[in-house]
Specification:
- The N and C termini lie far apart (58 Å).
- The chain has a domain of 56 residues.
- By secondary structure, it is mostly helical.
Length: 198
């Protein structure tokens, strides 16, 4: 850390390297140091928030995203990431929906924001509206495995198991070229859906 006192990019690259090796304490320490050192830059705040999320420390991730959004209130990516995390919890679901719906009005052609808005509706059990938003997102970004997973889950909620299988199969194919943490969930859901179809 002391060897990189004035270089934000190198400091964040080092934090990412520590993150890849699982060294959580050094990763977080580097990001916090960068935030202190470069308070006008959005990058260390977003990096810290993302690392907390990746480590499964959702309380810290939400708090960090909130701090970042307070500092950069016009940034849609921070707001979208915060909304996605808030949608995962029943006690913050209404806040997530308000935030995502506001973003969607501002950025109607942003794939990630449409997906997040759909995720809020999905968690409220409004599967038809969620489906429409996931489909809108996929029209804008047709190679997103996460959104296909979300669409598959909405189709399961609607008991449209044939369509769920198609969406989940697409998610699985895409996840093999760009791996993410949902692979196990896709396989589990596909197996359950195929049993329903049989």
């Amino acid at each position: 850390m002391d060897q990189l006192p004035h270089n934000l990019e190198l400091k964040l690259q080092l934090a990412a390297a520590y993150h890849r090796t699982g060294n959580q304490s050094e990763t977080i320490a580097l990001c916090k140091s960068a935030i202190t050192q470069f308070p006008d830059s959005i990058l260390p705040m977003v990096s810290l928030s993302n690392f907390y999320r990746d480590y499964g420390n959702y309380d810290e991730a939400i708090s960090s995203y909130r701090n970042a959004l307070n500092t950069f209130p016009e940034n849609p990516i921070i707001a979208n990431n915060l909304a996605m995390l808030l949608a995962e919890r029943e006690e913050t679901l209404s806040e997530a929906k308000l935030l995502a719906d506001k973003l969607l009005k501002q950025f109607p052609n942003h794939a990630a924001i449409a997906d997040t808005a759909g995720w809020g509706y999905y968690h409220e059990g409004e599967f038809e509206q969620a489906k429409k938003l996931f489909e809108r997102s996929l029209n804008l970004d047709p190679n997103n495995a996460v959104t296909y997973l979300h669409l598959g889950k909405a189709m399961i909620g609607m008991k449209e198991f044939d369509l769920a299988e198609k969406a989940l199969s697409a998610a699985l194919i895409l996840s093999r070229s760009r791996p993410f943490k949902g692979d196990d969930e896709i396989l589990r859901l596909l197996e359950a859906v195929r049993k329903k179809i049989e």
